[in-house]
Write a structure and sequence with these properties.
By secondary structure, this protein is of the alpha+beta class. Helix 1 links the parallel strand 1 and strand 2. Helix 5 crosses helix 6.
């Protein structure tokens, strides 16, 4: 099949998702880094929204990390990264939506809070999101395995994980800490972190801390232009 081109940005958690899926499937691709603060004019012809990630493959340009990742799973079906049963696939998509509409925005709210009150509210939202993952996803769907759907990872795991790689930096920057009582969340976090696809592209905590130190509350107002959705980073 024709070569994959991936338009990405190293610090972007949404682009991180797609790099993890490409790595897990051991797919070769051409990596094109986009400076989100100074996007080239030609990039508007690649991405409808000017966001990352975007891919080019087989004459098609596709955007939005969740859409890209399902496309990759359909076109390159080994290893399969969605459950076989329709009901389980539906549940996987529900949790991917939860990551997009609840988990990632709560993380961003903590990071970009303009006041102590806003940050406390963000911490409460992020903590509640993690508790829901523990109680309603990992405790009910994992069948004792470390991942959302058991012994093997799915797109859901790679959808959430980029923010987990950034959690220690968020802790240093804001004081937010994942409660130790969320045992299944920690087990998931540790299991995904040990995968070859994750280690191959991981960034250090300091890499993220340095970038978070440069963030200012006013950046939150500009976030949708970079992220394209619910105060999250890029899709």
């Amino acid at each position: 099949m024709s070569e994959i081109k991936l338009y990405s940005a190293r610090a972007c958690p949404f682009a991180h998702r797609t790099r993890l899926v490409l790595g897990e499937k051991r797919l070769k691709f051409e990596l094109i880094e986009i400076d989100l603060a100074n996007k080239p004019a030609w990039y508007r012809d690649v991405s409808l929204y000017g966001k990352v990630p975007a891919i080019e493959h087989a004459g098609q340009r596709i955007v939005e990390s969740a859409v890209i990742n399902e496309y990759l799973d359909e076109v390159f079906p080994t290893p399969a990264l969605l459950p076989k049963e329709p009901a389980q696939r539906a549940l996987a998509r529900i949790w991917i939506d939860f990551a997009n509409t609840r988990f990632a925005p709560a993380f961003t709210k903590v990071l970009w809070a303009g006041s102590a009150g806003d940050r406390d509210a963000g911490k409460a939202e992020l903590g509640a999101a993690l508790e829901l993952v523990e109680r309603e996803a990992l405790a009910k769907l994992s069948s004792g395995g470390p991942y959302f759907f058991g012994a093997e990872p799915t797109l859901v795991d790679f959808t959430f994980y980029p923010w987990f790689e950034r959690l220690r930096a968020l802790e240093q920057h804001t004081g937010f800490e994942v409660p130790r009582a969320l045992e299944r969340v920690h087990r998931f976090w540790n299991a995904v972190a040990q995968r070859e696809s994750v280690k191959a592209i991981e960034n250090s905590t300091e890499f993220y801390v340095e970038r978070y130190r440069s963030y200012k509350p006013a950046a939150a107002a500009a976030a949708p232009a970079v992220n394209g959705g619910r105060a999250a980073t890029a899709r």
